[in-house]
Amino acid sequence: NSTTGKYDIVVIGGGPGGYVAAIKAAQLGYDTACIEKRGKLGGTCLNVGCIPSKALLNNSHLYHQITHDSKHRGIEVEGASINFPQLMLSKDKAVNGLTSGIEMLFKKNKVTYIKGSGSFVDDHKVNVKPIDGAEDYEISADNIIVATGSEPTPFPGIEIDEERIVTSTGILSLKEIPKRLSIIGGGIIGLEMASVYSRLGSEVTIIEFKDAIGAGMDGEVAKNAQKILAKQGLKFLLGTKVNSGVRDGEVVKIEVEDAKSGEKKELESDVLLVAIGRRPYTEGLNFEAIGLESDKAGRLVIDSEFRTKHPHIRVIGDVTFGPMLAHKAEEEGIAAAEYIKHGHGHVNYGNIPSVMYTHPEVAWVGANEEELKAQGIKYKVGKFPFIANSRAKTNFDTDGFVKFIADAETQRVLGVHIIGPNAGEMIAEGGLALEYGASTEDIARTCHAHPTLAEAFKEAALSTFDKPINF
Ligand code: FAD
Description:
NAD; disulfide bond; globular; single chain; oxidoreductase; alpha/beta; binds flavin-adenine dinucleotide; 13 helices; 5-stranded mixed β-barrel; redox-active center; about 30% helix
């Protein structure tokens, strides 16, 4: 512990994977320390990911509603305008509240919080370089959990200055609203940031190499999402390759090329966001020195119980296999601590929801049509549009639909895909259905409150085997 430098469990990284693992380990009775070098707990998610992006999404949506979607509701607002520094402060306040909340949870659960960077000395010893510049020291542990997370994947040849050419980190802390914003990558992070700045008045162009947006989305849902976002003013250059992006004074010059015809074009933008994905982060961890392995993508190699070559060193979250999502990292954090304590743990990788927090939101869990077709699995689809849902109509918020995919014979739920208001909350019911092996009939026979958006969920389930009532 803090006086002897010997712990039962040391966790390296204080993001959603690491901090949850540390709290769970302490709750299971282990003397636990968590090393974090950022100076704040919460990792990418709380500091430069999920939380700041959702703060900006929520407040920009509110502004857009006030300015574009209130008059017809009988709400007259004169002279609404954006105070950008205050918008950013409000985001920082949300982040600070949550990160300091984790510090309190560490205290409550008696997790030792070590502010420094951790580096392997041997398979039981970790060198700590304190962030306050004090001298390095060593700690040791019976078990070590690595949760060092990920970082934005660089675009070869494009130099990031986090001012004009930015990653997801820079775009969350711009000094002013760019007149023109170009984004490389039509994935979730790119589209969320596109929504934020488009609502604040930027002209936004999304450049995507593939012919569709939204990596991992059901094809039909992705097409719909693109249509709706285009209607909101986002410009899409699909099937388009970026050749270069160079800062020239206060503008960025981007050369793009049509992936099929090879035709080249030059675009000019005030800010360029590079959002082509994330890669595992292991800088300074010195994992090679103790014989741990990484694959070609840089992910630390583990077995099904998160164990490395040294079975008492486990790896969780973005730095290893699986979707790079906060809730996936958290599940693994719990399971890793439970494996150490009980020898068994549980993460259902077939049931990890994804959400894009645009408006409308897009959320899905389980398999999509393309995956089932590729596996030759016979399925039925049931869909219900929000235009036929009384709550959505009442709220004048009717874009989108709920789509169920069920096994053709047994009606067991295989996947749920929602584009619509509050999809991100509603998908939890889909996750529960998958976890319990529910059939669509189970859902259709479950009484849902009226008037709620969730009635669309129920009727979409019903539509896989019978006629819906309200459509
Ligand atoms: P991280 O959160 O990356 O945490 C790792 C921590 O380890 C970091 O704080 C780092 O400083 C620390 N560290 C690294 N090396 C060392 C070392 N040697 N010593 C000490 N400390 C070290 N996911 C969602 O589920 N929902 C969302 O809405 C969402 N939105 C996102 C929006 C953006 C803009 C971005 C960038 C990401 C978003 N994500 C979202 C992804 C999510 O942030 C990650 O999946 C999640 O943070 C992964 O958690 P982790 O604990 O594995 O790693």
